[in-house]
Amino acid sequence: MNYDVIVVGSGPGGYVAAIRASQLGLKTAVVEKESLGGICLNWGCIPTKALLKSAQVFNYIQHSEDFGITISKAKANFDKVVGRSRATADKMSKGVTFLMRKNKIDVLTGHGTLVTANKVAVKDEKGKTEEHTAKHIILATGARSRQLPGLEQDGKKVFGYRKAMSLDSQPKSMVVVGAGAIGVEFAYFYNAMGTKVTIVEYAPRIVPNEDKDVSKELTKIYKKAGVDIMTGSAVQSVNTKGKGCEVTIKTGDKESKIKCDVVLSAVGIQPNLENIGIEALGILVEKGRVKVDEHYRTNVPGVYAIGDITAGPALAHVASAEAITCVEAIAGHNPEAIDYGNIPGCTYCIPEIASVGMTEEKAKEAGYELKVGKFPFSASGKASAAGHNEGFVKLVFDAKYGELLGAHMIGYNVTEMIAEIVAIRKLETTGHEIIKTVHPHPTMSEAVMEAAAAAYGEVIHL
Fold this sequence. Notes:
Layout: E1 2-8, H1 14-23, E2 28-32, H2 38-43, H3 45-62, H4 78-102, E3 106-109, E4 111-116, E5 119-123, E6 129-139, E7 143-145, E8 158-159, H5 161-164, E9 173-177, H6 181-193, E10 196-201, H7 212-224, E11 228-231, E12 233-239, E13 245-251, E14 254-260, E15 262-265, E16 269-271, H8 278-281, E17 285-286, E18 289-290, E19 303-305, H9 316-330, E20 345-347, E21 352-357, H10 360-365, E22 370-376, H11 381-386, E23 392-398, E24 404-411, H12 418-426, H13 431-435, H14 446-455
Parallel strand pairs: 1-2, 1-6, 2-3, 6-19, 8-15, 9-10, 9-15, 10-11
Antiparallel strand pairs: 4-5, 5-6, 7-16, 12-13, 13-14, 17-18, 20-21, 21-24, 22-23, 23-24
């Protein structure tokens, strides 16, 4: 078959690229070797949120007396929790299948490999190969769990995020290696379900890419919940002989050993660049990522790359935004380049974390004179009524011009609040304008207005 656009990979970058291309009148096909929706929909973003919701409900029930409700002792059915998660992912994958049909996009099932700059070979599971041509080929092959020496994954006792959401039975104890978004989310889930969890993080603090105040708050909350945290620590080896695991950990000059049932490796991701034909075509790769321009063109005319295989943040919403920008450029539009300094990040542990822009530390390093405002949810009426008064909103302003340089939140449902900040930064709204923007009461979002007021010495409820 001959197409205008062939997209290799159907994750949040790939399927969005295919749909937008079809909307713009381009004859489109998408190549996928597993399930439509990619890792995010099938083994990442969506099913993990289903797991976390089940854990949150279980936690609510255990603390129902706090809300004036008496419930007899509850018991979590781990198999049903996992089953609900898988059912949610399956439903969403079927939704993407519907969107492919609706937009008249051909789905080519199999492994896609570049043959030339305008030809893709698709090999199905039976070994049959068909070649398809296109004027434009978009690579959106995503990423997988990263493997580290000494932390080799056997898929049984040592595994990545994919296996962590579909275990046959709930482990009694677990070591989570890595305290980024994936690590702290699974740490919350398993701890809330009753597994003894230890987090091991190489950096000096957990969620190391977040503002220091956020890391400090989450550490306090996790320790109170019974999670053991080891920072400034590295896993040297994992002995899987015998019934469980023995993890050797080095902290400074000291070495310790922890026994556990299983080990979750959450030390990042590895782009899927192998066996897709980029070497044969001479497509440039820098620091393990495909090099692209602002419209995601590679150095080979007609070949593009988006999502986790490029240098941007490895986030689903980034891949989708890149997909739309890429395809609109292909269609002859002149799309605005993505501002990577205004990309929100969300972590769905409980309490949730959301942030965008510079941390206070980074803003100081950049030479800004700052005004910083923080409003704790302990002073929020809505947060107290909801029984979730931990956390805060922190805003970092440029003192000279009032520009909002960054926002950092930790608390209940803050991932639903961060979009306001992204819009504020996009529109170059000043601190005083935020203060004068009337927020509804009672809501968690009032904390944004109050944090801005705190930065300028005008806060009311502190």
